[in-house]
Structures are given as structure tokens and as C-alpha cells.
Amino acid sequence: MAKAERRFDDALRWNEAFHLELARCSGMPRLVRVVESLWAQSGPFLNFLYSNGDVGVPDSGSHGHVELVEALKVRDPAAATRAIARDIIGGGDHLVRSLAD
Q1: pTM higher than the cut 0.70
Q2: What are the domain boundaries of the chain?
Q3: pLDDT value of position 76
């Protein structure tokens, strides 16, 4: 929502919180450290993309994060896996396109 409303500071803050909390919920301290490290490395690049308004706001459909939360609520590991893959692939595709420009 914040991203679609172009409230990029909020979007970045909530995105970071979502990913870090998801890692913490895993109960896997090493995973948390890896995610924190990756976030620290990718954060400046995300800030650059957002500061230029280049954020890849989807036109329609549900966001991968929403799909993941819904899958976790009903304890559907296959749906959770699909939602995570969609989030990674969708975000990665956007980043690659931005780097190519």
C-alpha cells in the first residue's frame, strides 16, 4: 500500500521489518544473521531505486507478502513457497531491469 501511494520511506521501512520478522519467526538464528547481512548490503541500492521513484509498483493482483501471510495463516507450505518465490523473482526481475537501464 505504501509503495502504491508512493510513500517510499514507509514502504522501505515496512519491507525491511517484514523480511526481518519473517526470518526471526523461523527460529533459525543463522538465517536471521544472513537476512540481516543481505538487507544491509541491498538496503542502499533499494534506497537509490526508491529515491528515483523506480520501485516497480504492481498494476494489479495481490502482493507476494500478502499471499505469504495468508498461506502461513492456513498453514499451507506449498502456497507459502509459491508466495516467497513470487516475491523473490518479481523483485529480482525489477532489480535486473533497473540495472540494465
Answers
A1: yes
A2: 1-57, 58-101
A3: 97
